[in-house]
């Protein structure tokens, strides 16, 4: 077998705070998500809670920034229902969820049009095409009313008369 000329250096294990900062430097995390990721490495649940509180005080961890990040990453591709479903898994506060839902509902029609345009670009020619387009849009989390408006109004706003 091949022998190494120099033995591999072993690094000391990362501290809990170093792990947390590493995760947060890559992207925003919700408090619940970060707690889940750090739990296997924490000495105790109390130590983990103290760290999370300290990270929030020092503004390293912010659920408000996480919500903004979630909207930025998901809203262009998904409807309000799908983004809200993901947000609920992060155990955000009721106020944050209500604000997020308001933000998403306000722009859902425009986002739905953009997603539909990118995927299809032409109005459905047959009932089968229409059903396929509706299924796609609903699976992406757009409401039935928005999907209906997008597909019914496709001819008008593709021609620029909207």
UniProtKB/TrEMBL annotation:
Question: Which stretches make up the RecX third three-helical domain?
Answer: 108-151
Instruction: Give GO BP annotations, semicolon-separated.
Output: regulation of DNA repair
Q: Name one GO cellular component term.
A: cytoplasm
Q: Which residues form the signal peptide?
A: none
HAMAP family, per the entry: RecX
Q: What is its main location?
A: cytoplasm
Please state what the protein is called.
Regulatory protein RecX
Domain RecX first three-helical, first and last residues per copy: 17-53
Pfam families, sorted: RecX_HTH1, RecX_HTH3
Q: Which UniProt keyword terms apply here?
A: Cytoplasm
Enumerate the subcellular locations listed in this protein's record, separating them with semicolons: Cytoplasm
């Amino acid at each position: 077998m091949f022998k190494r000329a120099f033995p591999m250096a072993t690094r000391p294990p990362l501290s809990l705070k170093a792990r947390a900062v590493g995760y947060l430097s890559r992207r925003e995390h919700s408090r619940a998500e970060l707690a889940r990721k750090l739990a296997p490495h924490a000495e105790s649940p109390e130590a983990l809670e103290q760290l999370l509180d300290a990270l929030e005080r020092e503004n390293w961890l912010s659920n408000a920034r996480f919500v903004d990040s979630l909207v930025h990453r998901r809203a262009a591709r998904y409807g309000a229902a799908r983004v809200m479903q993901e947000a609920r898994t992060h155990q955000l506060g009721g106020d944050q969820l209500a604000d997020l839902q308001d933000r998403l509902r306000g722009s859902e029609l425009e986002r739905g049009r953009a997603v539909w345009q990118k995927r299809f670009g032409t109005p459905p020619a047959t009932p089968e095409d229409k059903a396929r387009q509706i299924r796609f849009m609903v699976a992406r989390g757009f409401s039935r009313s928005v999907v209906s408006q997008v597909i019914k109004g496709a001819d008008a706003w593709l021609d620029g008369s909207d």
